[in-house]
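Each lists sequence, tokenised fold; shown next:
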Amino acid sequence: MAALFALALAVGGALALSPPSAAAALTEVTNFGYNPSGLRMYEYVPANVAQRPAVLVAVHYCTGSGPDMYSGTEYASLADRYGFIVVYPSVTRSSKCFDVSSPGALTRNGNSDPAGIVSMVRWEQQNRGADPDRVYVTGISSGAMMTNVLLGDYPDVFKAGSAVAGVPFGCFATTDGSEWNSACANGTVTKTPQQWGDLVRAAHPGYGGSRPRMQIWHGTNDDVLRYPNFGEQIKQWTNVLGVGQMPSSTDQPQANWTRTRYGGTGTTAPVEAISIQGGGHNIMAGGMAARILDFLGITGGGTPPTDPPTDPPPSGACRVGVTVNAWNTGLTETITITNTGSSAVNGWSLAFTLPSGQTITSGWNAAFSPAGGQVTARNVSYNASLASGASVSIGFQATHNGNTAKPASFTLNGASCTVT
């Protein structure tokens, strides 16, 4: 089970406990307080740490570790820029998955991982002077599940959270000691918003204070924690935060991303949800961390910080050539894509509308979906990179009802292409 959650992130090394210095480094903290499940704690304190700094808890995926999360994400470099502290909890059980299933995990002040993570936060407040009003959490996969759990168990500790490829609070609950819940993972656990909200409220009975804001990310092609979990999380957190199910705003901040906001239209909306069309389970990419910090409020809101370019080339930075060979009721179409921009494209999708009556039956050098209408062709593993001036040839076979025309227009990663 744990292997399903492995993400392609680099592994970092743990260092011995030492005070922060001009050369900031990942440091392990021991004896940080109540730690019923034997977690390890790592911290990154930047050399230019702010007075009363914010704390970001960055929670790893199954089979990962705190050092993996440190070396494989952008949070430490962003901490250098903004002066906040990053805490990286690390699981010691064999699966390297966080406990988001047991009754002890789904209860405030229980006997499992959430209690240990909150001890880490309190250690930062007591020993580093961290600001208790600026504590945030984000996580990937198992860490995203833990993000949901921490916001439910400790709404008075965390001000906001961001869950990347996770499931709702309580969805993974089991009573037999198992860490895995197949029904939840497969997206077959559905509840009403009220039922989901009641699960969160039951973790801290009688709590009447403010609740943390929530940001949710999910890829439509996630084959580990299926996409229906995205909608179930939206139902849960809109109910918990008392906002409507209808989005207050919808936009596309990047190609293939659809962002909906609930209860507000800006970066401080109570709930923000980003669906990534065609994204798999590992959707964490360059630039996402900056957008996460922007929602959480660590960067002060407004325009996300500048990150290495990950957006598609501008309009006109691609050229598409098309050749159609047709017969009685079938045809083949060869498409040549050329990157006419000045920088490489790393990961591409070509969108076009198939003429009426045509249906794709097979394809090569790309993954085509759906078979008709508005189609998107996505790169395969061996042709994801397209250097400036480079071309790639893809194609498909299709049936037709007499209409053998080629598509009229194409967009590469959302940018219009010249058609020849």
